[in-house]
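Recall that a protein's primary structure is simply its ordered list of amino acids. Everything else, from secondary elements to tertiary packing, is in principle encoded there. The following example makes that idea concrete.
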Amino acid sequence: MENLFLIVALAVGLAMDAFAVAVAQGAAGHNSMFHATRTGMAFGVAQGIMPFLGWALGIAFVSEISAYDHWIALILLSGLGLKMLWEALGRNERDAVSSLSGWALGTAAIATSIDAFAAGIMLPALGLPVLLACVIIGTVTALLSSLGVMIGGMASSRIGRHAEVAGGVILIGLGIKIFVEH
């Protein structure tokens, strides 16, 4: 049960970049059900695949990093969380948001999934079930991104910044939790 909570918390934290982009899309008027579904699917698939790729790299080097895994988790998750906070707090709220489709959507999905790749590197050291983690991370991201487009359409672009800040705080908190519990 604790592993499931950890995976869901990780998934929510990792999904906040994609959620923030999705909210901005909806707030900019790109908020049809088609756009919400397409955005959610693109972000969800990328977020689900990237931790698997990170896990494959991590498993290749698990014996070399097992003595330092708690430090790696703290540094990676805190670094990702701080990066999200830096980006969220440094962005101008009035910046125009163009519609994401085609290559732009794919690029945004991959760009917001880099943190999931880094998180995947730690999965072997944390003993989390990799495929379950990837499915949950992808599903949570898809749902939150689709919902984000619709919320953005009903609210304003200010929500996106708060979502990114929350995601950053969650990732930093997870890094500290893993470090302390080691």
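Residues 57 and 131 are 15 Å apart (CA to CA). The two ends are 18 Å apart (CA to CA).
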